[in-house]
Amino acid sequence: MNNEIALKLKGVFAGYGELNILENIDIEIPVKTSLAVLGRNGVGKTTLMSTIMGHATLHAGQIEFFNQAIERLPVYERSRLGIGYVPQTRDIFPSLTVEENMLVAARPGRWPLERIYELFPRLAERRNNMGNQLSGGEQQMLSVGRALISDPKLLLLDEPLEGLAPVIVQMLMEVFKKLIAEEDLSVILVEQSAKLALQVTNQAIVLNRGQVTYQGLSQELLSHPEQLAKLIAAN
Questions:
Q1: Measured distance CA(218)–CA(83) in Å, rounded
Q2: In terms of DSSP bridges, do strands 211-217 and 203-208 run parallel, antiparallel, or are they unpaired?
Q3: Mapping DSSP to helix (H, G, I), strand (E, B) and coil, where does residue 22 land?
Q4: Residue 130 has what DSSP assignment?
Q5: Spatial distance between the Cα atoms of 6 and 214, rounded to a whole number of angstroms
Q6: 3-state SS assignment for residue 124
Q7: What's the CA dihedral at 105, 44, 67, 177 to 10 degrees?
Q8: What is the pLDDT of residues 55-67, one digit of tens each?
Q9: pLDDT of res. 2
Q10: In 62-135, where does DSSP find H-type helix?
Q11: Handedness of CA 228, 229, 230, 231 (dihedral sign)
Q12: What is the pLDDT of residues 86-112, one digit of tens each?
């Protein structure tokens, strides 16, 4: 395991407006590490992703990306540094084609358009379709492809399997496994299904009431389902 730290959050308090949702978050994610973020609805999982990306309000604490302080940087600068974001809302441009949706985010690097089409052949078939002509699964493929084409060092996946058909879930899980195993990429995965998230990641945290209540190895938590259930259900 590489000892270089890709992302570090220290003493982070964040939320929206004056409201704090996250409290005293300390996380370190080494290079080429995958982290599952688990917890019930409303505990702060999406807020954590939004805070890293710069969409939420940081009230206190530091955020470092490859030893560079980024907590004061706007969203577009964090993206340029190498943070790719697949939001829960997907945020596809409905009036652009599949290819145009990706090209607006494209940067030179490891993920040219042809490689995205190799990863998602369905997008190649639908390249000339408008964003609003895609199924939910196709939109999610496009959202992941658009994040990758920006050549990220860190990929944030916020509930990417939500509401999708089982066959699409299985396909995306295989994609995530491949990215985590083969690419020089750190991944943070927020997912309601703890078992699915733990199967593809190597580290995990559990959030409860905006605080980290567990940090450890994914396989350790996966092999102790009773402990996992208690952590997720904790008040």
A1: 23
A2: antiparallel
A3: strand
A4: B
A5: 20
A6: helix
A7: -60
A8: 999 999 999 999 9
A9: 53
A10: 75-81, 98-103, 113-119, 121-125
A11: positive
A12: 998 888 999 999 999 999 999 999 999
**Contacts of 91 by beta carbon, 8 Å cutoff, 6+ apart:** 143
Per DSSP bridges, beta strands 5-16 and 19-30 are antiparallel
Query: For residues 23 and 235, what is the distance between their CA atoms, to the nearest angstrom?
Result: 16
Confidence check: pLDDT of 1 > 50: no
Query: Which amino acid is located at 6 in the chain?
Result: A
| CA-closest candidate to residue 156, choices 103, 218, 82 | 82
For 133, the token pair is 């002509």
Q: What domains can you pick out in the chain, each with its CATH number?
A: 1-73+190-235 (3.40.50.300)
Q: What is the pLDDT of residues 149-187, one digit of tens each?
A: 999 999 999 999 999 999 999 999 999 999 999 999 999
Q: Which residues contact 80 (CB under 8 A, 6 or more apart)?
A: none
Q: Which amino acid does the sequence have at 132? A: N
pTM across the whole model: 0.95
- Indicate whether 141 pLDDT > 80: yes
CA dist 49 and 87 (Å) reads 9
pLDDT at 16 over 80: yes
pLDDT band at 233 (very low <50, low <70, confident <90, very high): confident
* N residues, the chain: 235
Angle at CA 85, nearest 5°, toward 192 and 131?
95
CA distances to 5, 53, 99, 146, 223 from 218, in Å:
19, 24, 36, 27, 9
Q: How far apart are CA 154 and CA 30, in angstroms?
A: 10
Q: Which residue has 């540094």 as its token pair?
A: 81
Enter the tokens of residue 96.
């652009």
